[in-house]
Amino acid sequence: MCRVMRVHQSGYYRWLSNREGQNREGQNREGQNRLLSAQIGALFREYKGRYGSPRLQRELRDRGILANRKRVARLMRVLGLRAKSSRRFKATTNSKHHHPVAPNLLLDQQMKRRFDVKEANRLWVSDITYVWTQEGWLYLAIVLDAWSRKIVGWAWSKTLEASFAVRALTQAIESRRPEAGWMHHSDQGSQYACGKYQQVLQTKNAVVSMSRRGNCWDNALAESFFGTLKKELIQGEKYQTRQQAVSAVFEYIEVFYNRHRRHSKLGYQSPQQFEDKNRNHPFSTLH
Predict the structure, then answer these.
(1) CB-based contacts of 134: which residues, under 8 Å, 6+ apart?
(2) How far apart are CA 241 and CA 263, in angstroms?
């Protein structure tokens, strides 16, 4: 055959060797994909379907498993794995009250919002959302540190009275002890504009800022967290009691979100990992 094709025998055997090597490589690749698919599926279930390909790829890398994002995304499609998607939720802000409101101090001269800060405990944002249970509504108030995106205070209530928003704020203040001149930003809801809440802020030497009426983007950090919470935890769930919902929210915030959930704005670190890494940062005011 070599004489007919006018090729050297050494060339034929080299071609034959390369072909066998390619077959072995293909078989190895197929085996690697099966193993990686199993690892992706296990992680997807571990994080309860909350992670898409970017976060799963980072999680795999930190566990010593190297695969690029496109490969992870392709294998997820083959496995039929898709992270939980978001949907619209009704706003709960009641701005129809007679309490005085503060201006939005996060807007610059070009009316662009400034959420980026270089220190811990310099800018906190607060907001309220709701969760439906078979016993009725459960209302949730949170306080979020804009520097690390960490939830530093939260509380729940059966009603929208201001006291539970005050509890969330008090919890945050007691755990973080912000220095005088820190800024608190919220919407114009009655829970935040009322005298009881403002008195706590005044006592703790806070600078008060509020969103413009009807503009949810002015409080985008808090809105973003609630969107993530509802997408990854609440959507599709049916809570029989308020206590059952509270337990789920506690696990999500204190165990998963603050300590483990990878945040794209933090270089895919969790809020707690970001704070631990930057604890001795010259701009950090953590104690």
Answers:
(1) 238, 239, 240, 241
(2) 30
Q: How far apart are CA 214 and CA 200, in angstroms?
A: 25
d(CA 101, CA 24) in angstroms, rounded, equals 71
- Parallel/antiparallel/unpaired status of strands 150-157 and 207-210: unpaired
Provide the 3-class DSSP secondary structure of residue 192.
helix
Question: Residue type for 229, please?
Answer: L
Q: Do residues 190 and 162 lie in contact, with contact meaning Cβ atoms separated by under 8 Å? A: yes
pLDDT digits (tens, 9 = 90+) for 129-145: 999 999 999 999 999 99
Q: Which long-range contacts (CB under 8 A, 24 or more apart) does 35-42 make?
A: 36/65, 36/67, 36/71, 36/72, 36/75, 37/75, 37/78, 37/79, 39/65, 40/72, 40/75, 40/76, 40/79, 40/81, 41/79, 41/81
Task: Give pTM, 2 decimals.
Answer: 0.74
Q: How far apart are CA 46 and CA 38, in angstroms?
A: 12
Q: pLDDT, tens digit, for every residue of 149-203?
A: 999 999 999 999 999 999 999 999 999 999 999 999 999 999 999 999 999 999 9
Q: How far is residue 261's CA from residue 276's CA, in Å, rounded to a whole number?
A: 15
Name 123's bridge partners.
183
Using 50 as the pLDDT threshold, list the residues of the chain that sit under it: 89, 109-111, 282-287
Nearest Cα to Cα of residue 184 among 196, 192, 176 = 192
Q: How many CB atoms neighbour CB 235 within 10 A?
A: 13
Residue in this structure with the two tokens 């997820």, named with its chain if needed:
76
Average pLDDT, the chain: 85
- Pairing mode, strands 150-157 and 183-186: unpaired
